[in-house]
Amino acid sequence: MIINKAEILCVGTEILIGDIVNTNAAWLSRELCFMGISQYHQAVIGDNSDRLSHTVETTLDNCELLVITGGLGPTYDDITKETVARIIGKELVYSKELYDEIHRFFRHKGKKMTENNRKQAYYIDGASVLKNDIGTAPGMLCRFEYKGSEKIIVLLPGPPEEMKHMWSNYAKPEIERHTSKVFVTRNINIVRMGESEVAQKLDSLMRRSTNPTVAPYCKTAETRLRVTASAETKEEAQRICDDMVEHIKTTEVGDYIYGTDTEIPVAVVELLIAKKLKIATAESCTGGLLAKMITDVAGASSVFEGGMVSYSNSIKYKALGVSPSILDKYGPYDHRVAAQMAEGAKRIIDADIGVGITGIAGPNGGTEDKPVGTVYIAVYYNGKSKVTKFKFGRKLSRERIRELAAINALIMVMEVIKKAGAGPHR
Question: What is the mean predicted confidence (pLDDT) over 54-66?
Answer without folding.
Answer: 96
